[in-house]
Design a protein that fits this description.
heterodimer; A: Rossmann fold; 4-stranded antiparallel sheet; 33% helix; B: alpha+beta; Alpha-Beta Plaits; 2 domains
């Protein structure tokens, strides 16, 4: 369970990204966060992986206040959350396979399991044959699927996707969304930030709408209302 | 252990896949070590020139003509007991005379007037060399003491005192200036290398951030960089010391013409096991330190 307790993030007196946000996300939920650019979607996700810390309020994951975690222990939190970004954030000097395997290597998983799990996840995203290619040699859709595989490989409780379809054409975008739905059906919480109206409307899942840092609506089976 | 092996693997993967970054990092380190090595050799040469100059200075003590040789040798022995004295050369009256004659062999007037005299007019003398040129006044004042006053006719230090003191001042400021210049040039070289390495790591800042977000611990990220810094340093110091050999072989005979007593090549080879560790220390220190400092900045994700 993820719980935001009266969280505000104020970058400077004139820039308030999140204001007094209280929010609960249940395990195995598929939850979309929508809103126009600058509404605070990305900040919300950054707070969740502790890339940013809240100005006031507290954030709990499994009853643990994540802002109590020291910088040194932060990697352990992040290994439990798979993150997917709009700009993929793949390591350019590593092959697709190595990029995915890296997420396991950092956790000290032994070589055989790294090998097996990486292969398996690449199959799930349909890129088993592209493992030896470098990110530069892959298309945008392929890159994003590799990034998703990387997020998935350490079997996280939560997958956080920040505009994962933002740089993709509709077809490739839908591939990613379908994968996210599949991952969610296998029991992983998915938090998806997007401003793609079409995707939200056809998902028929919970939608949280932010505007200027404030929560303006929170609906089960929501629609894109702005 | 597993993590350590992975750090090594990642380090060498980075090394081979960023070959141009590797080349430029090694190159800039090699150049720095080369400049620092050059400064080291220059200061060795400079020190040698100064020592050679210093060796040209001595003071002479002239004894009254009636002083017996055994008295003089006794003074010589006394002087040799002093810490400051490097060596003493005894010139007897006869030697002094023959030296004088030799020197003026083509001057008939002088030789003729010398023949007019019934006895040898020259005094015996001791030529004293001090270990350091600022010790002459001490030696001179020692000789000034009462127990020598009867037999000593003249100490030439007091005629040359102004010149010697001036020389000492110049020596001291040359040394100080040389040291300052070396320190300044060395810091410039190190700063240039440091900045270049910072830039190289700057190109990696995004990757460092990604690694953090994927859950890599700081040491897992830092490890490969430190390893690479170490490796670059070793490679660069080996290259720099190898490059010095042909350069010094070329320079050595030309330098010998100016400075016969000093052979820069044999200085290098003779002190190689002192010089190489210095190079190695500079290279690896620079590599590791700049890695640590630069990465620290990008690990704040």
């Amino acid at each position: 369970m993820i719980f935001f307790d009266k969280v505000s993030k104020i970058y400077s007196p004139s820039v308030t990204a999140i204001e007094d946000l209280t929010l609960k996300i249940n395990p195995k939920e598929f939850c979309s966060v929508v809103g126009p650019s600058g509404a605070g979607k990305s900040t919300l996700l950054k707070l969740l992986i502790s890339e940013e810390r809240p100005s006031t309020g507290r954030i709990f994951i499994h009853d643990q206040d994540i802002n109590q975690i020291s910088r040194r222990r932060l990697p352990y939190l992040r290994r439990k959350i798979g993150m997917v970004f709009q700009d993929y954030k793949l390591l350019p000097t590593k092959t697709a396979f190595e990029n995915v395997a890296f997420a396991l290597e950092v956790a000290g998983v032994n070589d055989r399991i790294v090998e097996d799990d990486t292969r398996q996840v690449l199959e799930i995203v349909g890129l088993a044959d592209k493992g030896s290619q470098f990110p530069d040699e892959l298309s945008g859709g392929e890159k994003q699927r590799i990034a998703l595989a990387r997020a998935l490989v350490s079997r996280p409780d939560v997958i956080v996707a920040d505009e994962p379809t933002g740089n993709l054409d509709p077809l490739n975008g839908w591939d990613i969304i379908r994968l996210l739905i599949k991952i969610n059906e296998l029991g992983t919480t998915v938090i998806l930030a997007t401003h793609n109206q079409e995707i939200i409307n056809s998902l028929g899942r919970r939608v949280i709408t932010l505007e200027k840092g404030r929560l303006v609506s929170d609906e089960e089976k929501g629609q894109y209302v702005l | 252990m597993l993590t350590f092996l992975r750090i090594i693997k990642n380090g060498f993967q980075d090394f081979s896949r960023n070959i141009w970054l590797t080349v430029s990092a090694v190159l800039i380190m090699t150049l720095t070590i080369f400049v620092l090595g050059g400064l080291l050799f220059l200061s060795a040469i400079g020190e040698n020139v100064l020592t050679e100059l210093q060796d040209k200075i001595d003071i002479s003590v002239y004894f009254a003509t009636e002083t017996t040789e055994s008295d003089i040798l006794k003074v010589k022995k006394d002087l040799e007991g002093l810490n400051e004295v490097k060596n003493i050369e005894y010139v007897s009256r006869e030697t002094a005379l023959s030296k004088f004659k030799n020197r003026h062999a083509d001057n008939k007037v002088i030789l003729d007037s010398l023949d007019e005299l019934s006895a040898n007019p020259l005094s015996a003398s001791l030529n004293i060399k001090a270990k350091f040129s600022d010790q002459y006044s001490k030696i001179a004042s020692y000789l000034k003491s009462d127990r020598f006053s009867k037999i000593i006719d003249k100490i030439n230090f007091y005629q040359n005192q102004a010149v010697i003191e001036r020389f000492n001042e110049i020596m001291a400021s040359l040394r100080k200036f040389g040291l300052l210049l070396t320190a300044a040039l060395a810091s410039v070289a190190i700063l240039v290398a440091f900045n270049n390495l910072q830039l190289i790591i700057y190109t990696k800042r995004e990757e460092i951030g990604i690694m953090r977000l994927v859950g890599a611990s700081n040491w897992f990220i830092r490890g490969p960089f430190i390893l690479l810094g170490l490796f670059y340093g070793v490679v660069a110091s080996v290259i720099a010391s190898a490059v010095f050999y042909p350069i010094l072989s070329f320079a050595s005979p030309r330098l010998s013409a100016l400075l016969p007593s000093f052979n820069i090549l044999s200085y290098y080879l003779g002190n190689f096991w002192q010089i190489f560790p210095i190079f190695l220390g500079i290279g690896t220190g620079l590599g590791i330190l700049s890695g640590l400092i630069a990465i620290r900045r990008y690990l704040r994700v």
